[in-house]
Amino acid sequence: MAEIMMLPVAPYEVNGRNIFDTGISTVGRGGHDYFCAHCGRQMVHNMDLSKIEAEMLYKCSCGGLNVPPPVE
């Protein structure tokens, strides 16, 4: 499991992509922890976002939009 900082997305860069509101916390069943690029809050716990096929933005409770970094 890794701790991964998301990449910030400006509101004008949404371009019709779906936005997933992480709310208070989003918990998975195995994977990584992802942190908001705007405020540093842990947004997603124990998930592997690289396995999600839809191109999606993740909204933090601070209001910031984020996207996972590219998989190497």
Listing every helix as H and every strand as E from the N terminus to the C terminus, the arrangement reads: EEEEEEEE
The structural class is: mainly beta
Question: C-alpha Rg, in Å?
Answer: 11 Å
Q: In percent terms, what proportion of residues is strand?
A: 35-45%
Number of helices: 0
Distance between the termini: 15 Å
- Give the strand order, joined by hyphens, for the main sheet: 1-5-6-4
- Summarize model confidence as the mean pLDDT: 90
Sum up the overall morphology in one term: globular
Low-confidence stretches: none
Report the helical percentage: under 10%
The number of distinct structural domains comes to: 1
Q: Sheet bearing the most strands, described? A: 4 strands, mixed
Counted beta strands: 8
Report on this model:
By secondary structure, the protein is mainly beta. It has one domain (3-67). Helix content is 0%, strand content 40%. It is built from no helices and 8 strands. The strands form 2 sheets. It has a 4-stranded mixed β-sheet with strand order 1-5-6-4, with no helix packed on it. β5 (32-35) and β6 (42-47) form a beta hairpin. The protein starts with a strand and ends in a 5-residue tail after the last strand. The model has no long low-confidence stretch (mean pLDDT 90).
Keywords:
four-stranded mixed beta sheet; single chain; mainly beta; 72 residues
Reconstruct the topology from this structure:
Elements: E1 3-5, E2 7-9, E3 18-21, E4 26-27, E5 32-35, E6 42-47, E7 56-59, E8 65-67
Parallel strand pairs: 1-5, 3-7, 4-6
Antiparallel strand pairs: 2-8, 5-6, 7-8
